[in-house]
Every structure is written in structure tokens, then in C-alpha cells.
Specification:
With about 375 residues, the chain is α/β, with parallel strands linked by helices. It contains 9 helices and 14 strands. Helix 6 packs parallel to helix 7 and helix 7 packs parallel to helix 8. The N and C termini lie far apart (about 70 Å). The relative contact order is 0.18. It holds the Pfam family PAXNEB.
Length: about 375
Amino acid sequence: MAATTKPRTSSFSRNLSSAHSSQTPGLKHGPNGTTFISSGIPDLDKILCGGFPLGSLVLVMEDAEAPHHMLLLRNFMSQGLVHNQPLLYASPSRDPRGFLGTLPSPGTSKDSKSRDSSAEQEKGLRIAWQYKKYFGESQESVNAIDGKYEFCNDFDLRKPFDRHFFSGKHVECVSILDSSSLSTTLDRCATFLSQVPRNDGNISSAGRIAIQSLCAPQCDHSNMEWEMLSFLRSLKSMLRSSNAVAVVTFSPSLLLPSFSKRWQHMADTLLSVKAIPDEDKELANLLTGYQDMVGLLNIHKVAQINTQVPRILEATTFSIKLQKRRFLVLECLNQAPVDGSTGSSYGSTGSCSGSSKTGSLDF
């Protein structure tokens, strides 16, 4: 009788349990055969419907008045270190490895706990508070450093990584300051991407490339517009055949308008950051929570891998806030005359399309 009750499985059916178990930590499977890695910001991952697709080029347009792009770059690099993913960092500084000491370490915030509370209730996780107070904090720190239970962590910007944490990591640092051409940097990228090739089987590892201020004026190649454009084109073609994501920041004001447009066209995902003036009374009267904002994030383009259907976002401009001056949070902008409450984190919605919640209008 036991043999007769055994369910029959077709040879064409997919074994979901084995596919889920073979998934590499730090990766998430999406539609159309797309695999995502985290940007290091939970709200940005939900805005982009998963994160950064493997094999894509992400460009971040800097603000000449504030280094807000470094917030995105630091979280992107730290998330790769948590997941033990190979990292290549290129910078116009003479000692790029010293920048690793400024990377934030994973932490926990009340907002992240509230996001996962509903999921924990669904899973039936019931731990008595008497036991949680003894091993809760240590268990959370192990999970955060391990990276096996979190696709994206909340990073404490005021708590840097310990230097001994980089000893066992695959981290390469390159200085583009003294290089007269970008061929050396391109060769380093090619060697790095050859370690994470794209195969038909399961993905064993994923790499991250972070390039800061590619067209910095202190670099010798800053006036070689065509060479920098050729570098981006070659980098994008190499990323397509690898399991890696490259995030490159640049300042559009340092490029000619025609070349700036070409750079933006090369990007799979295009973002821009902008600082908020300290005393902008018009903007303060227009938006709620203005005093807590440190900048604005604009999403100009979203990667479309393995599909020709454009992705429509609910909003393209978000406020950058620091929760408790530690954790990076993105929030939808609220207009003060319509809604007097502060904006809610985008992570609370968890939706990529559809109409946003609007209150009823009283006439």
C-alpha cells in the first residue's frame, strides 16, 4: 500500500526543492532567468524589484556639491564582503585600500525588525523572550556576518568593518590615478571577471566591481572622452558573459554634454544622487520630513535583462534619510499639503508596479 500511495512525478516537472537548496547565498532568482545580487540597501532592492541583475552595468551620477554617491558605493561593497563575494575596487586615490576601512558593518535596526516581523509570524517562529534575551544579539550578529540568512543587510554607517575581517576575503584594489590610459584597469577587470564566468549550471559565486569617480579631474585620462567611453563599452560586454555586477560613479559636470548622454545610454541601471540645500524654504514647505532628508535619489533607467518589456516603477525620485543617523533608508516623497505625516520607507510596500495607496478626497 505504501508503494501505491507514492506520488508520481513527470520527467518534465521541475524539482523546486533542489533548485532552492542549490541557490548560492547572496543571490536571488528573478523572472526570465534573471539572477539578482543585492545593492546593499534593502529599500533600493525592492524599488528595483530584486536588486542588480548579474551581468549588468550600473552607473551612478554624482553630485558635485556632496559625496552622496559614496553612500551607495560603500553599501554595495559591504554587501559583497558579507556574502564572501570577490570584490574589485578602483579609485582615483593613491591608496585605494585605505578606503576599505570606511566600509560600514552590518547591524540591526528597529525598521528592519518590523519589516521581517510579518514574515516571522507566517513561518511560525515563536521563541520565548526569556531565551531570546540570552542569545538573540549574538545570533543576529552571526547571521549578519555569515550572510546566509539575509539577502540584504542593514549597514551601520557609523560602525566600520574590523580590519581583520578583510584577511580572508578576495578583495583587489586598483589606483587609476597615475595610469595614463585605462587599458591597465580594463585588463585588471578582465582578469577579475574571468574568475566568475557564466556557465549553464548553477552559479557558484558572483563578483562585484566598484569604480569610483571614473572621470575624476586628477586622473591623466580625464580628458580622453573616447577612451573612457570605450572602457565602459568593453566593460559592459565582459559583464554580459560573467556572473558579476559593476557599479561606476561619475560626475556629469566633468564631461561634455554629448559624452554624458553616451555614458548614460551605456548603463543598464542609471541612478543619480543630489544633495538637499540646508535652507530651502520652498522645498521645506512642499515636502514632509524635509528636515530629516540628506539627499535625493533619482532612478532614470532600470535594467532589462532577457526581456523587451519596460519596467514601470511607482516612483522615480526618493528621499535619502539616515535612520538614527546610522542606517540608510529610501522613502517616497510626500507632499505636505496633501499628507502631513512623514513619508514611509519604500520597503513597507514591497511592490514594483500598480497604483500607490491614496487617501479619499473630501470636497
